[in-house]
Amino acid sequence: MAIIQQTPLLAKQLGKDFFSDKLSSICVNWLGDDIATIRDAATKNIKELTALFGTSWACDFLLPSIDEIRQNSSYLRRLTAVQACERMASELDPAIVQTEVLPLVLEMATDTVANIRFNVARALGEMGPICDTTAHTQQIRPILTLLQDDPDRDVRFFADKTVSKLEDAFAQNQ
Predict the structure, then answer these.
(1) What pTM, to 2 d.p., does this model score?
(2) Are 95 and 133 in contact (CB under 8 A)?
(3) Can you count the helices (H) and strands (E) in the chain?
(4) How far apart are the C-alpha atoms of 46 and 48, rounded to whole Å?
(5) In this structure, are residues 72 and 78 in contact, taking their beta carbons and an 8 Å threshold?
(6) pLDDT (tens digit, 0 to 9) for every residue of the chain, 174 residues total?
C-alpha cells in the first residue's frame, strides 16, 4: 500500500517516458490485486497519474487495460474497472470522457451482478456533469431510466439518487 501511495511522487520524479516504459504496467496490474484495499488504492493512483501525465497518456497506457478488466469474469475486477473510470473522469478532457470512458461504463449497466449495476449508477453521477447535454439525454439518462426499473432495490436507489443529482446539476447550468 505504501508503494502504491508513493507512486505518483515517484512518477513525477522519473518523468513520463521512463515511468511509462518501466512502471505503468505495474500500476495497471494493481487493479487486479486480490486485496480490495489495494485495488481501491490503485484506482486512486490511476486518477493521480492521469492528472500528472494527462489525457493522451491515460488513453494510451490506462484505458486499454481498464477495458480488458471490464470484461473479466470476476465481478470484483469489473467493479474495479467501474471505479477506475469514475475516478479518472474528473482528470480527463470532457471529450474523451464522452467518447472513450462513458461507453465503457454504460456497457456495464447490464452486468449480471447488482453491485456492478449500482456502481455504474454512482459513476454516472460523477461523470454526468463532465459530459454535455447531448450525452446526458441520449446516453446517460436512458441507462439511468433502465436502472431505475432494475429488480434490485439498491440499484434502483442509486439510480434514483443519481437522476436527482444530475437533474440538479443540469438545472443549475441552465
Answers:
(1) 0.90
(2) no
(3) 13, 0
(4) 5
(5) yes
(6) 888 888 888 888 888 888 888 888 888 889 999 999 999 999 999 999 999 999 999 999 999 999 999 999 999 999 999 999 999 999 999 999 999 999 999 999 999 999 999 999 999 999 999 999 899 999 999 999 999 999 999 999 999 999 999 988 877 766
Longest dimension (CA), the chain: 49
Element (H, E) at 104: helix 102-107
Sign of CA dihedral 101, 103, 106, 108: negative
- Indicate the Cα dihedral angle 149, 153, 159, 161, nearest 10°: 130
Tell me the CA distances in angstroms from 77 to 37, 91, 122, one per residue in order. 13, 22, 17
108: its cell numbers: 456495464
Residue 129 to residue 94: CA distance in whole angstroms: 10
What's the pLDDT at 62?
93
b (16+ CB within 10 A) / e for 58-74: bbebbbebbbebbeeee
- Buried b / exposed e across 138-152, counting CB within 10 Å, b at 16+? ebbbebbeebbebee
| Strand ranges, E, within the chain | none
